[in-house]
Every structure is written in structure tokens, then in C-alpha cells.
Amino acid sequence: MNESANAAVEGTDVAQGTSSNVSNAGTFAATYNFKTISQEDYNELFEKFAAQGETKESFFARIQGGFEFPGIDAKTNELKDAKKFAKRKSLTLTLHSLNDVVAALAGNVAEATVEFVSAAINKVITDYVKVQYVDTFQDVGVHDLAAILEYQASTGTRGGGVSIDEATYKAALESFKVCMVSALGNEKGAEMLTTIAKARFTPSAVTRANLQLTETTAQKLETRVDQWGAWLNETAPEQADDFAIVHNVWINNIKKLTKQQAQVNLEDIL
Fold first, then answer.
1. pLDDT tens digits, 47-104
2. What digits encode the pLDDT tens for the residues 102-129?
3. Same domain, 112 and 229
4. Residue 206 contacts residue 259 (beta carbons within 8 Å)
5. How far apart are CA 191 and CA 56, in angstroms?
6. Averaged pLDDT score across all residues of the chain
7. Are 11 and 45 in a shared domain?
């Protein structure tokens, strides 16, 4: 891999399509397909998805095997297309369905209804796993009903996950920066907060900005995001509705920062 493929990367939703097949064994196969992304988008993945303390080199070494690079000449290893630079390989996972829910329906309603409900449940699970694990380059973790309901409650959504289109996210970031410049009175601080926001306020994004993962930090970040939300309601209520999903995701991630700090402290003690 040449140096251009080992650059930085932040958060872009790279998934293009998802499909799932129902199984009678309590598990089902979920296949995730992805679109081709630019070199810039590939380079931005690091900012959003790198684990806390993970270096740029180790991050790209970790994810590189899951990508094809049509933008790099296979013979010369030179860049040939920066716009169609990388494409993540299709991924098929075996996920656990909600057996108890489906079993409760069996024998009580028509078979077609059971199949419909089972497919709907699996779609929610598939979407949840996509947003929580696949898109973030993490190993698949818990995806039971309790985890999904907790996520829905924290984000104000009814689906399994939150997928924000690129145009909406970029517009939200621009709006957030304008608000922060006005609130802080300096562009440097606004730029720092916008960079963290661009990476969805993940722990790694916060620490890369040289901020401590503390409750105080989380409270200040949450205050700024809520300040942006209030500013939108006053100045551009139509955008407040459009950007509500972004606001919810940011607040949800900020609330997780203190949990991350608790885990770090526990590891220090043990």
C-alpha cells in the first residue's frame, strides 16, 4: 500500500446497502455492501473510528485488508483516481435474532405474519449492527433487544441505528461552526470543536484535541451542542428539524464519554 492510502480518515457513512436472510436456527446472515469512496473520505476514517490511543499507522493497517483500492494502479502502486479511491469489501455476518419474540407468535398467528415480523426484527438488528459495529470497524458486540432499546431511547429513534446522509452532516457541521464562532468569539476554538463534532464526539476525537475524558469536559461539550440546538431553534427552525438527528447522535456520544472515563479509571485500579 502506498503512502496515500495510509493517510488520515474520519467519519463517513460508507455503507451503501444492506440485506438479510431469515434462518430458522435463531441466527441469520446479514450482508453489508459498500460504495466506492474518495481518497479524502478514506483518509477521514481515522478521525472518527480510530480507537483511543490508536495511531494512524496501526488504524490503517487494521482496516486495510477489508478494502479494495481501485484508485491505485496495481502495477505501479501509484494513485490513478482520487475520486474512486477505495471500496470496502462486502461483509456477511451471522447475527442472532430475537427467538423468544418469534416463538411467541408461532402457532398464534398466520405463518406469513410470523415471517413478516421475523424479517422486520432482523432488519432492525441488521441496521443496529451496521451503525454500532460495522461502520465503526469494530468486532460485532451485543445486539440483543435490551441493547437496541437502550440505543433507541438515547437517540430518539425507532430504528436499529442512525444513518445520516453526507450532505446533511456537512451542512450541520457548517451551521455548528458558525454558531461556535459567534458563541466563543474566536475561530480557533470553533474550529477545534467542529473537528471533534465532525468525528461525532468520540473519545479518540476528544483526546486528539488534547482534552481530558472527564465529566467536566463532557458537560462543557454537551452545553455547546445544546447551545447550537437552541441557536437553530431561534435563527433557523427549519434546519433545527433537519439537524435534530445530528444533535441526538452528538449528545448520545458525549454522554458515553464519562462511561469511557470510568472504564479507564477501573483499568488503572485493577
1. 888 877 788 999 999 999 999 999 999 999 999 999 999 999 999 999 999 888 888 8
2. 888 877 888 888 888 889 999 999 998 9
3. no
4. no
5. 21
6. 82
7. yes
Which DSSP symbol is given to 153? H
End-of-domain residue from the set 124, 155, 186 = 155
* Mean of pLDDT values over 190-199: 92
Asked if residues 30 and 7 have their Cβ atoms less than 8 Å apart, the reply is no
CA dihedral (218, 219, 220, 223) in degrees, to 10, reads: 120
Q: What span, in angstroms and rounded, lies between the C-alpha atoms of 223 and 218?
A: 9
Question: What is the count of structural domains for the chain?
Answer: 2
Q: Give pLDDT, residue 108.
A: 81
| Same domain, yes or no: 18 and 97 | yes
* Full residue range of the structural domain in which residue 222 is found: 166-269
What gap in Å lies between CA 240 and CA 23, rounded to an integer? 41
DSSP at 64: G
CB neighbours of 238 closer than 8 A, spacing ≥ 6? none
Assigned C-alpha cell, 181: 464562532
Are the CB atoms for 245 and 201 separated by under 8 Å? no
- Higher pLDDT, residue 85 or 198: 85
Residue 209's pLDDT band (cuts 50, 70, 90): confident
pLDDT of residue 237: 87
- The amino acid sitting at 254 is I
- Is 160 a member of any domain? no
45 and 8 co-located in one domain: yes
**Boundary of a domain, candidates 120, 155, 190:** 155
**Is 75 part of a structural domain of the chain?**
yes
